[in-house]
Amino acid sequence: MVRLADNPIADLFDTLRAMSTSAPTRTVADMSYLLTHAGYVLSTQMTAALAEIGLTPRGYCVLFHALEAERTQIELAEISDLDKTTMVVTVDELERAGLAERRPSGRDRRARIIAVTKAGERAVADGSKIADRVHRGVLDALSEEQAGTLVDALTELSRGYLAQPALSATAPSVRRARQRRLSP
Fold first, then answer.
1. Strand pairing of 100-104 and 112-116?
2. What's the predicted TM-score (pTM) here?
3. How many angstroms separate the Cα of 84 from the Cα of each of 3, 32, 88, 89?
C-alpha cells in the first residue's frame, strides 16, 4: 500500500480499522452466555426426551405441580412460570390428551382446579424418570466434586444474587415476569 507521509486521513483510517477489528479483552467469564447456552441446550434435551412419551416440559411441569396439591389454574400458572394464555393452551392440550381435567374447586366455587387423571399420574411418573435421566446426564458429564459444586452454586445464585430480575425504567421488558421455583 502506498502511503504519503503526514497524511491525517490515512492515519484516521488506520486508527478506525484497528478499533473495528479488535474486541476488548474480557476480564470475567461471560456468565450470560454460559448460563443461557447451557440452559438452552438442557431445555432442548428435556424437550426431546419428554417427547418420547408425548409430553412437553410445560405439560409435565403443570401435571407435576397439580399432583402436589389441589391448585387452581392461576396458581399452577404462577408456580410453572407460565402466562395466562400459555397456561390455557397447555391445560387444553393436557385435557385433549386425557392427562388432566378442569374441575370446580372445593375451596372456592368460582375457581377451577386442574385435576390429574390416572393417565396423567402415569405420565408424571414416566416424566419424572425422564427428567431425572436428563439431569443425571448433565451431572455425569462432570466429576462428582464439580457436579456438587455446580448444584450448590446454582442453588445459591437462584436463592440469592439471581433470585429476582433487575428492574429498569429504561430497559425493555423481558417475557419472564415471574420467578421459577427450584423444583420441576
1. antiparallel
2. 0.75
3. 65, 28, 6, 9
Mean pLDDT over residues 23-46, rounded? 92
CA-to-CA dists, residue 145 to 31, 136, 148, 181, angstroms: 21, 14, 5, 25
Distance CA 4, CA 167 (A): 53
Q: Which of 127, 133, 136 is nearest to 94 (CA)?
A: 127
What's domain 31-159's architecture?
Orthogonal Bundle (1.10)
Using pLDDT thresholds of 50, 70 and 90, give the confidence band for residue 146. very high
Q: Give the pLDDT confidence of 83-132 residue by residue, as tens digits.
A: 999 999 999 999 999 999 999 988 888 888 999 999 999 999 999 999 99
Domain boundaries, the chain: 31-159
Closest Cα to residue 180, out of 153, 149, 159?
159
User: Is the distance from CB of 167 to CB of 47 less than 8 angstroms?
Assistant: no
Pull the grid cell for residue 25: 479483552
CB proximity list for 183: less than 8 A, separation 6 or greater: 64
What string of H, E and C letters represents the secondary structure of 42-106?
A: HHHHHHHHHHCCCCCHHHHHHHHHHHHCCCEHHHHHHHHCCCHHHHHHHHHHHHHCCCEEEEECC
